[in-house]
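Hi, here's the filled form for the chain we discussed.

Project: internal
Contact: R.S.
Residues: 102
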Amino acid sequence: MTTLRGATHSGFASWNTSIELIESVSSFEPHQVKTLGEAFDIAWEQIAPSTSKHDAHKEIARIVLADLIFSLARHGYFDSLWLAENAARIVLSRQGRGSTGG
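And the returned structure, exactly as it came back:
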């Protein structure tokens, strides 16, 4: 069983984690949400090939990626390429230590 910021994970992300991500999105303007979505898509293209083939591990990696992008955006970063590059770099470095892949 894996824990992701207090959410217990035994197959897919918990309901609480999903609600937290929805609440994060609701704190941004529509054009900002579009930028965050673009950043997520760009970053996921970089991360997906190195992510475990297990659906549960992919889901964790996607949640971690979204959380990182939201965190960076809350600090005022809204360039989709910058967000994608930095979030992907962080996730990939964590996968190298075994915390989101497997």
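Let me know if anything looks off before we file it.
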